[in-house]
Design brief:
By secondary structure, the protein is an alpha+beta fold. The protein has 17 helices and 39 strands. Helix 4 crosses helix 17, helix 5 runs antiparallel to helix 8 and helix 15 packs antiparallel against helix 16. The relative contact order is 0.09.
Length: 739
């Protein structure tokens, strides 16, 4: 698609406009968009989204939550033709293209001596069905002549994924009505998915200012939903019932509420603040709003490439959900926005029937979650990667660990008892109990790769094998240490909450949980990634065994923790994803190796984030998947759990900030941390840290206490706690559940 920026050559180097005033940390501006040769480089463009719909700015497609097309391994996000990719045929003397992450808005400004064009594009937080383009034409010259601004329109009403018909076209709206072409799985999806698109007729005749006019506002509304009546109501609301400025102000107000609900503030390092703000924005804009007037809809997962991408198999992971959701993205959301963390878990719960069927398919019990999931919860891993799909069983433990952390942060008994949370915990534990075998030689339980001769798929045989998070360990291995750890935690969790769920864990399960075999090298005092791992001559893709230290917080002494970090760091390939270095950052901060931690912290984002819009790439200084919010989530974990020194366990919230702040920061502030109904602000400087309690849930039946140096006191509203850095504060419920 050609754009109206004037090119001096076939390739334009992007130059970011620097603005060190108030908006510098939230507004990302360039005067030239990223190009690849003679076409706009959409991979480096930002997106607007609200968890229901999203689109890369000026791209050809819009995507909707849960709308997938394709059979099993060919399933991908269904492409809805964009209604927002038209261009002004205008030769500006100045131009700017800005993403404002504080308001979730992209603004295009084109200007010459005579006229100024300002277009704002946003995905409404007020009503999530809505995508809005708000255009203001302003006269700058005093000549008073009629101004006509032509446009290039590329209206598409067809899709390779959706059988669309133009059901209506009039002066008020165009209606596209259609269904996806293929179901994902005949067992769990009975019919194709419907979608309805109402949109304002596109400006084929351009824009006008009459001689007497100084400005004119145009509003272009797109409303998309699976229910026609709802899509129509939202379109009429935005088009007829509200002034365009009210639609805009309501959207901005709701985004302001998001940031006031929870955010990270950096004092003294604007560039780091920009990194944090953009990372949060790209994750939050693929999640449901904290507050909206739209009806609640089932959330269908968080893909590594966000809601705005994934329209082709093999492109940005096709919109599929992986372990990335629970392991890398979820932790950065949980303590600030626990309701959104619950939405993420609701996706797995909603697809529990598929998980139960997946376990039965392989001869096991309980719920076994697929490696790649989309609409139905069946495994949608593409051909060519079926071994990974079969072997990466740790994802079931990753989901259970995310549930563990949600319970730890909220103590949400209702979720456990009546919202299938207890079922999720118990049935994932049941899977692991059925998956292990006992070794008479080791006197331990193991999780092994084994051949199932009675199943007749996957080239006439299925290996129920094990692959650790390190995918370079293909084809399969025995006793992945990470897999065994999450399996143990899964069973332990089911037992821990049994007094609430009333689901009794058999003693045999507990024997398994506390007697799983962990590969370990006694000579070097180092965990082995799997049985037979060579600590000297093996190259790994990404963080694996080091994840035992964090996020799992598996018990070990400092020597083993340090050895894990030091041995695996040089074994990790340079082209691996950013999250590895975030985990090394956290580990070395734990050990007070501050220089090494700082080195890894910068490595975790500097070569992965691309200007001008801070787009995350999967591969350093290259591409891979974009916008890779998995990397953004890992980076935020390094800030929150690394430099924030926060640890969350089933028993307590611990705060122990390390004795150095990141980069040039003078102060680090976590606004709106949520723990068991309390709202906390954590402020860290170079000498001390402070906890301000600015809210307590009076309906929470569990009182909280705080402990410092073996003394404990009730936690009450409106108090400030201040302590030296590198000392530990514990906040916990007065009574532990199921102690």
């Amino acid at each position: 698609m050609l754009f109206l920026v004037i090119l001096s050559s076939l390739f334009v180097v992007v130059r970011t406009v620097q603005n060190h005033q108030t908006g510098f940390t939230t507004i990302f501006t360039t005067n030239r968009l990223p190009w690849n040769g003679s076409v706009l480089d959409y991979r480096m463009m930002p997106y607007v989204g609200n968890g229901h719909v999203a689109t890369v700015v000026f791209s050809d497609f819009i995507y909707m939550n849960g709308l997938y097309n394709g059979d099993n391994g060919t399933s991908h996000r269904a492409r809805i033709p964009s209604t927002l990719n038209w261009q002004f045929l205008f030769h500006p003397s100045t131009s700017s293209f800005s993403l404002n992450v504080s308001s979730g808005t992209f603004t295009e400004i084109l200007e010459n001596d005579e006229v100024r064009i300002e277009q704002r594009i946003f995905a409404s937080q007020e009503y999530t069905e809505l995508l809005i383009s708000h255009v203001v034409i302003t006269r700058l010259a005093l000549n008073g002549r009629k101004i006509v601004l032509p446009t290039r329109i590329n209206e598409q009403v067809t899709s390779d994924d959706i059988d669309f018909v133009v059901a209506a076209r009039n002066e008020q709206y165009v209606l596209l009505s259609g269904k996806t072409r293929q179901v994902e799985n005949n067992q769990f999806q009975l019919e194709q998915l419907p979608v309805f698109v109402y949109y304002t007729p596109l400006p084929v005749n351009g824009f006008e200012l009459d001689p007497q006019e100084t400005s004119r506002t145009y509003l272009f509304v797109t409303s998309i939903d699976s229910e026609q009546e709802r899509a129509k109501r939202r379109f009429e609301y935005a088009s007829n019932e509200r002034h365009s400025d009210q639609i805009w102000s309501s959207h901005v107000s709701l985004w302001n509420d998001v940031w006031s609900n929870g955010r990270v503030e950096i004092v003294g390092d604007d560039e780091l603040q920009r990194q944090i703000n953009s990372a949060f924005y790209y994750i939050l804009s693929s999640l449901p709003p904290l507050s909206t007037r739209s009806e609640h809809k089932q959330f269908y997962g968080l893909s590594p490439g966000s809601l705005s991408r994934g329209g082709l198999v093999g492109e940005d992971y096709a919109g599929h959900s992986f372990w990335d959701t629970e392991t890398w993205i979820y932790p950065s959301i949980l303590l600030f926005y626990p309701n959104l963390a619950k939405e993420m878990l609701s996706y797995r719960i909603a697809l529990r029937d598929s998980a139960a069927d997946n376990a039965r398919l392989f001869g096991y019990e309980g719920w076994r979650y697929p490696w790649e999931s989309a609409r139905t919860g069946v495994d949608v891993t593409p051909d060519g990667y079926l071994d990974i799909a079969t072997y990466q069983q740790h994802i079931t433990g990753d989901i259970s660990f995310a549930a563990r952390q949600y319970i730890a942060a909220t103590g949400d008994r209702k979720w456990l008892m009546s919202e299938y949370g207890g079922d999720l915990v118990y049935e994932t534990a049941r899977f692991w109990a059925s998956r292990v075998v006992y070794s008479n030689e080791k006197k331990k339980y193991e999780i092994l790769s084994k051949f199932l001769s009675d199943l007749n798929t996957f080239s006439h045989r299925i290996y129920t094998a094990v692959l650790p998070p390190d995918e370079d360990a293909r084809p399969f291995k025995n006793n992945s240490v990470f897999t065994n750890a999450v399996a143990s935690y899964s069973i332990q969790l089911a037992h821990r909450v049994s007094c609430i769920t009333k689901k009794v864990v058999p003693q045999h399960w507990l024997d398994i949980a506390f007697n799983l075999y962990f590969p370990f090298d006694n000579a070097t005092q180092t965990h082995l990634e799997y049985d037979g791992f060579d600590l000297k001559n093996t190259i790994i893709k990404q963080a694996d065994a080091v994840l035992l230290g964090f996020p799992l917080m598996w018990p070990m002494n400092k020597e083993v923790r340090r050895n894990d970090l030091l041995f695996y760091e040089p074994l990790t390939r340079a082209s691996g994803p950013a999250m590895t270095w975030s985990m090394h950052t956290i580990g070395f901060l734990e050990l007070n190796d501050l220089d090494k931690a700082q080195q890894f912290f910068r490595r975790a984002y500097e070569t992965y984030v691309q200007p001008p819009y801070n787009i995350w790439t999967e591969i350093p200084e290259s591409l891979g998947a974009v916008n890779f919010i998995t990397g953004a989530g890992g980076f935020l974990q390094a800030v929150i759990f690394g430099y924030g020194g926060i640890r969350l366990t089933l028993d307590q919230l611990e705060v122990m900030p390390p004795p150095r702040l990141p980069n040039q920061a003078e102060k680090l502030i976590f606004h709106g941390l949520k723990y068991h109904g309390s709202i906390l602000d954590l402020t860290i400087d170079n000498q001390n840290y402070h906890i301000d309690v600015r809210g307590m849930d009076n309906n929470n039946s569990m009182s909280l206490v705080y402990e410092y140096e073996q003394e404990h006191f009730p936690l009450t509203n409106n108090i400030r706690l201040s302590y030296p850095i590198n000392t530990r504060l514990v906040i916990r419920p007065l009574m532990h559940f199921c102690a």
